[in-house]
Structure formats: structure tokens, C-alpha cells
Amino acid sequence: MEIINSINDILWTYLLVAVLLGAGVYFTIRLGGAQFTMIGEMFRLLIKSGHKHDDSSDLEEPTTKRISSFQAFVVSLASRVGTGNIAGVAIAIVLGGPGAVFWMWVVALVGSANAFVESTLAQLFKVRGDHSYIGGPAYYIMKGIGKRWYANLFAILITVTFGLAFTSVQSNTMAIALHSSFGVDSWIVGVVCTVLTMAVICGGIQRIAKINEIVVPVMAVMYIGLAVYVVLTRISMFPHVMELIFENAFGFNQAIGGTFGMAVIMGVKRGLFSNEAGEGSTPNAAATAAVSHPVKQGLIQTLGVFTDTLFVCTATAFIILCSGVFDSGLTGIELTQLALEGEVGHAATIFVALAVIMFAFTSVIANYFYGEANLRFINPSVKLRNWFRVCVGVVVMIGAIVSLDMAWAMADITMALMTLCNIVAIVILGRYAVICLKDYRHQLKAGHDPVYHRSTIPEIADKTECWPE
Q1: Residue 221 and residue 214: Cα distance in Å, rounded?
Q2: Nearest CA-CA partner of 219 in 308, 116, 306
Q3: Cβ 400 vs Cβ 193: under 8 Å
Q4: How far apart are CA 84 and CA 169, in angstroms?
Q5: How far apart are CA 409 and CA 158, in angstroms?
Q6: How far apart are CA 229 and CA 289, in angstroms?
């Protein structure tokens, strides 16, 4: 643990915070603040997408096999909305103080520009798969930068990060929640989760998308509704909570005491784990959508960052801070359960346990999809893919019984390394996303439903095979 923590300190203290926020500010300027000025268009696209595609390409597969924009959105949201929103926020508040919440907001607002760029690039450089489009950072690194070794490096990192490290975090949190609420032994949770995970992931992206588009929106709305209830019942404390957040984020006493830096680091670290903006994960889901213009999915995925952090993560933070138990000595999911029990009663801890199970399970199967998609990029062997499924099942089992600290620490290292790889790639290729956005805005202004053509960016026309001439 000492070695792992030392590596994390180097990565997060000296590299990730500056790189992640620096890239976010850079793209916010280059895109003209599109993540703020085009929010209305994001909602319009999401509502319009429904369960239908609007793809104008010449993909030959039956339309029933295509993934709609909405389905791609919920697959990525399933990965985002998980234990990071409930357990991760609690850890950030305990270790970084209430000010960590503010820096989670900053990561979402600024980092959403990174999310737009990476998802737009994923759409731009996507390729045809067996049953749907496939793509992501490995593909746009290979096609846009032309470095196979670099693309393979990212593919390996995300496969390890999501297929293994993050999966262990999700199953670990499920085990803790069920043991805390119902006294269920961790090994039993591991066995059940492993069986259910294997049953779902063997059905491919279509089965994953269908399950996630039902479970994720329902649980997210219910959880946010519970948080709103807590805030309304303790509305008199709301000004104090906001004061606590901002005071700890910028306060002089925090700077003197050395907790200011911890607030920033924990806010960025747990914020990135939750919303994944710039991490390179959600582009894998974004690439599967059948849309008429890359920017459409870029905007919808940007909305996913706001949904995750500004709504679900903020809901958890308000529950904990309104309850006043954030210094109780507990951390993770147990702290969130304690906060809700004090506000709503014991039944709330059961709801949190069930919410965690749903959020974490959908995250596990979405994480598997990210790993499989990149494993295919490295080697399309079906045999290798089957072995990977077995490995995921084993990690789900192991994650349920390992220590919380070890699970989160390993996830932080692999997340940091893949994020660095992706940020460098999108900074190099970001100009293509900027051109796509200009083209999209021009067509919107002319009153057209934007459609992308390869001729829009002639220099990469031969590398964007899934778009019409």
C-alpha cells in the first residue's frame, strides 16, 4: 500500500490535476464554451434520439442491430453513475473536506469540454463491427495519429482499468453495502454477482444497452428524489452547507493547514472517477451510436457529465453534509448510509444498499464492454475474449472480499495512466472536433438537420470510413 500510495501521489499531485484541468480550459476556449451555450441542443438531441437511430451512412446491418444515441448514452451513464457517486463522494468529503465537492463541480464544468472532444472524435473515427459500430481512443489514436503502439498502450490500460480494477471497486462496494444493511457475507455477494455478470456480458452490447436503458434512469431519478427530500426537510441548513463547501474550497485556514491541496486532489480524483470526462472510457460507448453527425453524440455525452456530477454526486454530497455526520469516522458507502439513516430512518439504508447494487452492477457490465471493445482492437480472437470474460468474473469475486483501500488505490493508478494517454491524444486531434462543431453550427443556423460528410475534413477523409462522401 505504501508503494501504491507513493505512485498515486506522484501521478495526481504533479500531473493529473494540471493536465486534466488545463486541457479542459483549453478546449472550453477553442469550442467557445459549447458545453454551456449548447445545453438546450443537448436536451433536444437526447429527447429526439429516443430508441431510434438517425444514421445516414451506408451501414448494411439491419437497423435492429444498431445502437441508438440514447442507448449509447445510457451505457456510458451506467459506467459513470455507480459507486463513485455514492461511495466515492463520501471518501472525497472525508479525506478532502467539504471543499472537495466544489472541485468535483469544477472538473465537471471544465472537463465536460474534454468529454465533448473525445466523444466527437470517437464518432468521427469509428469503424464497422459485427453488429454495431465500434470505436474509442484506441481507434482515433491509430487512425488520427497513426501510432499503433500508442493505440495498443491505451487499449491495454483501459482493459485493465475498467475490465479489472474498476470492476473490483464496484463489487467491493456492493459487498460492503449488503453486509452493512443485511449482514450478507462478502463471499456470497461475490458468487451471486459473478453469476449475474457472466449471464449479461455473454449477450454482447445489445443486451448491455437494453438492461442499462431501463435500470440507470429509474435508479438515478429515485436517488436524486431522495436527496431533494433530505435537502427540503433540512432547508434551513442549506446556506450553511453551501458556505461550508466554498469556505473549505478557498478558505485561508484550509490553505494554512494544508488541507486546501487535499480538497483539490480528492475533488479532481473522485470527480474524474465518477464522470470520466477526458478519461477515454465513454468514447467507447459514444462510438457505437448511429447518428448523422459526430457532434450529436459529443453533445449528448457532455450532458452525461453534468447528469453524473452536478446531479447525482451533488445529491450524495448534500445528503452527507446536511446530516452533519461527515466527521463520524466512517467512510465510503457506510457514511452515506449513516447520513440517510439519520434523515429518513433505517429504511433509507436499505434503499441505498439497493441503489448501490443497481448502480454498481450496471457499471460492472458497462465496464466489461469497454474492456472487451479494446481487447478486440488488440486481438480480435474469440478465444481471447472468452478468457477475458472469465477474468472479469474472477475479479468480481475477488473484489467482493479485498480491502476497500487496496481496491480504490489500484483503480486510481490505472485511471491516471489511461487518462494521461487519452488527454495527450485529444489535444493532438482536438482540431478535428473543433471543425466538426463549426460545421454542425453552420448547418443548424441554415435550418438543416446536420449531416456529416467525409469531404468536410479532406485530410482524414480516407480514415473516416463510416460517413457518406
Answers
A1: 12
A2: 308
A3: yes
A4: 9
A5: 16
A6: 35
